[in-house]
Automatic annotation (TrEMBL):
It comes from the Eukaryota. This is MULE transposase domain-containing protein. It comes from Dendrothele bispora (strain CBS 962.96).
Amino acid sequence: KEKPEFRIGIKCSYAIQVLLLYGAEYGAGLDSSYRHKNENRAPVTFLTTTDENERMVPGLVFISGDVTTETLILFLATVKELVEDVALDIVGDPTVIDGVLQLHQEKLIAAAHEVVETGDWVPLFFMIDKCRAEYHAILHVWPEACIRLCQFHVIQSIIRWEDEHGDPESQRPSLKRPKQHMLLYAFRGLQRAYDEETWDTEKALFLERIRTVILPGHKNRQAREAIIQYFERNWFTAFWRDLWTDIGLPPGHNCDRISTNNFTERAFKTFDQIFLDNRANKSIFRLILIIANEWFEYYRQWHPTHAKPPNKDYLDMWKKAYDVWDSGAGIVDMGTNEKGQCVWRVAA
C-alpha cells in the first residue's frame, strides 16, 4: 500500500517580493532539514536569498513527505510562477509593494520590469549541498541555471572522505589530521581552476602533491591510488566538477561571495532556536502555523537595513568579554533567582 502524499507550500507576499528584489542579483540558497521539525520527519525545505548586506532573508517554504526531484520541481516551478506573477502585478500597480520594502521600491520596480520584459525570473545562482535531487529539479525549471556546491560541505566531505560512498572494494586509508590539512590545501588550489586549461594545470599539480607530499614512499602506492580514485569518482566527474571549481561561477563573479550555503543553514538554526525554542516539534500542523504566522513576519517586521559589523569588531568584543571573565573579578555571582536559575552580573 502506497503511503499518502503530503506536500504543502507556504508563502506570503513579502517573501515572494524579497525573491524578486534580491534573487537575480544575489542568488538563492536551497536546503532541507529533517531533524526535530515534526513527528513524521517530513523534510522542511527553505528557499532563501541574501540582501546587499549579506544578511539572509526568507523566500518560500516547502514541506513534503520526501525530497525527490519530482517534489522539488513542483515547489520550484510554483515559486518561479509566483515571482513572475508578482513582477507583473508590480509593473501594473506599484502600490502592491509590501510596506516594509518601500525603501527598495525603485529597485524592486526595476527588477519587476526586467522580469516582465524577459518573461523569466532567474536567480543569479543556486547554492546547494551535494544533492542530486536539488540539482536535477533546478535544471528542470531553469535549464541554464548556475548551480554551485557549498564549499563548506565540499571541505567537510573531504575531511571525512573515507566515509564517502565509492567503490566498495577500494581500501581507502584514513588520514591523520595533519595529512587531511595538506589534502585540503592541495584541493583549495584545484578549486581555483577557471577554465579547461587551468583545470589541467591545477589537477596535475594536485595529483603530484598527493603522490609526493601527502603519502610519499613506495609502500604507500596503493593508498595514494585509492585517494586519487576517490577524487576521480566523487569530484572530478563532469557531473560535479563545474559546481565546486571557479569554472562554474557566473561571469564577473568570484568565490568571495558565492561560496557557501551557510546563510540557508543559519536560517534553520535560527528557526530551531527562536521559533522552536531548541525543542523537537511534534505537530506538523503547529509547524505550518509557526512558519505561516511567525517565521515570515519576524523578518518582515525586522527587515535588515544595515550591514553586519566587521569581523574585527566581533573579535574585539569577544576578546574584551574573555578578558573580563578571565580576570576573576569582572563577573559577580549573584546566586539564584526565584526560578532557581543561576545569575551573574558583570562588574562596572
